[in-house]
Design goal:
Number of domains: 2
Helix content: over 70%
Strand content: under 5%
Order of helices and strands: HHHHHHHHH
Length: 269
């Protein structure tokens, strides 16, 4: 545990930076929001320290199989940072914020074609929404979706280059998959392959399904308010990051199933 503690503390600091970054770059009025941010940052830091300092985690998957979690965290960090810089340029314009704003506008306009996830995010907004909010949503959705796509592609490339997950040493399936119960019944390989396919399909469909669900909720009387930059940043970041994370998990589970099957064949031979 002591040998893992320094690395766990570094990860905890990065989690705190991720949580407070939007509010540091785009200040929000109100003491209640500040208290919530502090509580979330403390909880995230404690959770990270406990998970990464213990001998076996309870929730974090692929803890000892980098760079799975590093790619996911880097994608989320980059998404939140880019969106925060876009909205920082609204109140405090600078050359850097203008670069992110221009990039978001170009990417958003390019990806905003019929039936695309970005178009669906724009269409979910109720009638009468401020055109400025629509423009910000389009820019943020386009940039965040592009980052999520690149993160998935980068993970697949690393998987091929380094023969993930066994890049160095042995791969402990039960430590790296703490939420997977091998005694639940059925063949382990078939279950991993099934879960992998489900995650891949779900990760691909979620960017299209989430706007439709939010539109349905809005039509039932619950208005969607994205006027607050903080709400828009975290909503769009979650919309882009969660499907990419689920898709990468599906690819990882399929790779682990393939690895176990190869080891079985070698043992039988």
């Amino acid at each position: 545990m002591l040998s893992r503690l320094p690395a766990a503390l570094v990860r905890a600091v990065l989690v705190v930076m991720l949580v407070i970054m939007p509010y540091a770059l785009v200040p929000s009025s109100g003491s209640d929001s500040t208290q919530i941010i502090v509580l979330v940052a403390i909880f995230g830091a404690l959770f990270t320290i406990v998970e990464y300092s213990s001998s076996s985690p309870s929730l974090v998957e692929f803890r000892d199989a980098p760079p799975f979690n590093r790619v996911r965290f880097s994608a989320l960090f980059a998404t939140v940072f880019c969106l925060a810089m876009i909205f920082k340029g609204v109140d405090s314009p600078s050359a850097i914020s203008a670069y992110f704003q221009n990039s978001g506008s170009v990417i958003g306009a390019t990806i905003d074609f019929p039936y695309s996830p970005v178009r669906l995010m724009v269409l979910m907004m109720p009638d009468g929404t401020d055109p400025t909010v629509i423009q910000h949503l389009r820019d943020a959705a386009g940039l965040s979706y592009l980052i999520s796509v690149f993160s998935v592609i980068w993970f697949v490339i690393l998987l091929r280059l380094y023969r993930w997950p066994r890049r160095t040493g042995a791969f402990n399936v039960w430590i790296n998959l703490p939420t997977f119960d091998p005694t639940a019944g059925g063949d382990v390989v078939k279950r991993l392959q099934r879960d992998g396919r489900i995650n891949i399909i779900l990760g691909f469909l979620l960017p299209f399904l989430v706007p439709a669900v939010l539109k349905l909720i809005s039509s039932m009387g619950t208005a969607i308010n994205l006027d607050n930059p903080q709400t828009l940043i975290w909503t769009v970041s979650a919309w882009a990051f969660l499907p990419a994370s689920i898709l990468m998990r599906g690819v990882a589970l399929s790779r682990v199933a393939q690895m176990i099957e190869v080891q079985r064949r070698k043992s039988y031979t």
